[in-house]
Amino acid sequence: MNTLSPRYLDGVTSQARDVTLLMTGSSLIISMNHITLDDWSYSKIFVKEDWIDAAGAVLGYKDNLDASLVIYNHQQFQKMQERLSTRHRASFMIPTHYRHLFLLALGATAAGFILFPIISNLAGLATYLVPQKVERKLGQLVIAQMETEFKPCDDKAAIASLQKITTRLEQFTGESNMHPDIYLFKSRIPNAFSLPGQKIAVLSAFLNEATSENEIAAVMAHEMGHMAKRDSLEGFIESQGITIIAGMIGASGSYGDMAKFASFVQNMKYSRQKEFRADEYGSLLLVKAGYSPQGLSSFLSRMDKKDDENGWGDSAKYIEFLSTHPDTKERIKRIGSYSRKSDVIFRPSLTQAEFLQLKDACRS
């Protein structure tokens, strides 16, 4: 059973808070440290996002449509649904009779393989219809969710150095509205990834593992490649479409899990295509900005080598990096072709002292 506390976003600030819930006869009282934050009448509560085993469920409130309440305990979610009007509950439920389980699981899988490629193609088109204001709001919600998984790192000097690197890169994108915001988190996993709303999340172990400013710039340029194509927004839209279909096939139990497996298989191909495209964008951007694409290939090569050696006590963290950046060897080969086409001499933006401070970020 998931023991995570419910998370409340008040719709005014981007901060998500761990809260305590009290179900009374007519309303749901949301409190923190014995202080009441909100009092939601059951008649105005609705299910924003149906239950997913890995992510929980999200409730909304009619009087404040920007507010959200994330529930991680399935039993608690079911009890709340019983208090809601029928039209405000999860959109579709299938009774879980065991004699039908096998047939429903097969049906979920088959429908998933048929429908998910169509949704994936539509998601790419849908990204161009989403206003940037909405995307930025979504990005803030994603950051708030990340704060439940990783501890934010308030290293202002490190964030300033990262911002200095991305500012140099953005000057050569040719896009006037490209202004990445950097969010730094403490983690033993070396990774960085773009989020909706022009945000880049950097996990501190990535900085600790980097051997040069060029490597850091290369990974940031790669993430800006995802940002330029709004890949993270497309992925979000794609997953939401898949969630809806998975809910229609089976909103609980193994049915939804089978559909998620089909989704994962389909997304593997699309994620590879996006990685190759972001590599190309990032490599060309690096050359224009006076960096070298070799920074990206050298970082990937080192992660790949550490995974192959299997002699690292923390080898799982390198596997985690490679699992989110597929086809490493093929990517290194492709990036090498961009490097051979350029004769750029790397010019740092950071002093040696600034780089060493950045490399040591969030260790305390």
Instruction: Decide which structural class fits the backbone.
Output: alpha+beta
Q: What is the assembly state of the chains in this entry?
A: single chain
Distance between the termini: 33 Å
Rg of Cα set: 22 Å
Instruction: Give the total of domains.
Output: 2
Mean pLDDT: 76
Task: Give the low-pLDDT segments.
Answer: 91-106, 244-270, 310-324
Helix content: 40-55%
Percent of sequence in beta strands: 15-25%
Order of helices and strands: EEEEEEEEHHHEHEEEHHHHHHHH
Main sheet summary: 5 strands, antiparallel
Strand order of the largest sheet: 2-1-8-7-6
Characterization of the model:
By secondary structure, this protein is α+β, with helices and mostly antiparallel strands. It folds into two domains: 7-88, PH-domain like (Roll); 127-359, no CATH class. It is 52% helix and 17% strand. The chain contains twelve helices and twelve strands. It has helices spanning 74-83, 101-126, 132-146, 156-170, 204-209, 213-228, 231-249, 253-289, 294-309, 315-323, 328-340, 352-359, and strands at residues 7-9, 17-18, 20-23, 27-32, 35-41, 45-52, 56-61, 64-71, 151-152, 181-186, 192-195, 199-203. The protein has a five-stranded antiparallel sheet with strand order 2-1-8-7-6. Strands 9-10-12-11 form a four-stranded mixed sheet, with helices on both faces. A three-stranded antiparallel sheet has the order 3-4-5, with no helix packed on it. Strand 7 and strand 8 (64-71) form a beta hairpin. Helix 6 packs across helix 8 (253-289), helix 6 (213-228) crosses helix 9 and helix 8 packs parallel to helix 11. The protein is elongated, with a radius of gyration of 22 Å.
